[in-house]
Design brief:
four-stranded antiparallel beta sheet; alpha/beta; binds adenosine-5'-triphosphate
Length: 256
């Protein structure tokens, strides 16, 4: 399957997802351009997480397909989708709490290189100097080098999310999916994360971001798609979306 525009790295093509009688996603057609930051916003229950889960292979769409870089992802397992260059930062970080921050950040690079990772590899971590150096560099980038020897489980929620971002960056993904990257963070940590995500953008990484915090959305997004009731009700630049009466009615005037 191809897309009309060569710059499109991800195409969610006519995707539907039902849960029993509930239409969580209907007629979703979404095209994500290479190197851009594309935000998906919408009120609670709009279908945002379901959409991300379909993209990363955690949920099979009832109909339609997800195409990444010309390859159909639909039907692939989450780890296979990860291997082709799609990484996701979760709303709740998935980390190894009893390992140090540095070890956590090294693991995705080892898993990517070796195809899998088991805790048996732990003993060899110290010998992995190249990956170790890169992990330290990544921790420096996310402002967490000073915490590299702390146990990951002891970090604050904001630091866990920054560490998880470093874990994703170690995979050098072509597409980074961020599910509420600043949820639960203080305003200060939120602004640090915005700066960090801007820095990643300068490196040309494509990002899809789900976010309730409009400050974050309008600071980062090149394009916004608005979901409501499982459908895309508006799409455009931040300015276009901000001024769209349908959006104001469905979203901006609502609970958020
Ligand atoms: N596994 C599931 N089984 C049944 N219904 C589900 C399931 N996952 C999501 N839903 C329903 O699908 C709809 C969309 O949910 P989803 O979590 O995708 O919305 P969201 O936009 O991410 O919401 P929020 O902003 O609150 O995270 C909701 O009505 C939700 O209750």
């Amino acid at each position: 399957m191809t897309t009309e525009n060569d710059n499109i790295v991800l195409h969610v093509a006519d995707v539907h997802k039902t849960f029993g009688g509930l239409h969580a996603l209907s007629d979703i057609d979404l095209q994500i351009e290479e190197g851009k930051t594309h935000a998906i916003i919408g009120p609670n229950g709009a279908g945002k997480s379901t959409l991300l889960n379909v993209v990363v292979g955690r949920l099979a769409p009832t109909r339609g397909a997800v195409v990444f870089d010309g390859q159909v992802l639909t039907g692939k397992q989450p780890h296979e989708i990860n291997q082709v260059g799609v990484a996701r930062v979760f709303q709740t970080p998935e980390i190894f709490p009893d390992l140090t921050v540095l070890q956590n950040v090294m693991i995705p690079a080892l898993a990517k290189r070796d195809g899998s990772f088991t805790l048996n590899f732990m003993s060899s971590l110290a010998d992995e100097t190249e990956i170790r150096d890169e992990a330290i560099h990544m921790l420096e980038d996310v402002g967490m080098k000073a915490s590299m020897d702390m146990l990951a489980g002891s970090l604050s929620r904001g630091d866990k999310r920054r560490m998880e971002l470093a874990m994703c960056l170690m995979q050098h993904p072509r597409l980074l999916l961020l599910d509420e990257p600043t949820a639960g963070m203080s305003r200060h940590d939120t602004n640090t994360t915005i700066d960090l995500l801007k820095k990643i953008k300068e490196r040309g990484m494509t990002k899809v971001i789900i976010e309730h915090d409009m400050h974050v959305v309008f600071s980062l997004a090149d394009k916004i798609s608005v979901l409501a009731g499982g459908r895309i009700i508006a799409e455009g630049t931040p300015e276009e979306v901000r001024n769209n009466p349908k959006v104001q009615e469905a979203y901006l005037g609502g609970a958020h």
